[in-house]
Design a protein that fits this description.
By secondary structure, the protein is mainly β. The protein is 8% helix and 39% strand. It has one domain.
Length: 77
């Protein structure tokens, strides 16, 4: 499980703000299990986010501080 800096669980479909609130995005994939990291050919767990500035972007779990990602809302089912 990957959490926002405030301790809230990150879920696929969450709307977020990135990079000091400069950009919007939506969480597309949560890559937290070792087999997921390997399947995505990554070096660390993290998130794939569809961003307003660069399409699908990977954010490593270790970089998710309050300046990097802010939870906005859950996806509406």
């Amino acid at each position: 499980m990957i959490l926002y800096p405030d301790g809230t669980e990150i879920r696929v479909g969450d709307a977020v703000l990135l990079h000091h609130r400069a950009y919007a995005g939506v969480v597309q994939h949560i890559i937290d299990l070792p087999e997921d990291v390997e399947r995505w050919n990554l070096e660390a767990p993290g998130l794939m986010i569809d961003t307003s500035y660069g399409g699908l972007v990977f954010l490593p779990k270790d970089s998710l501080d309050e300046d990097e990602i802010i939870f906005v809302s859950r996806a509406v089912a």
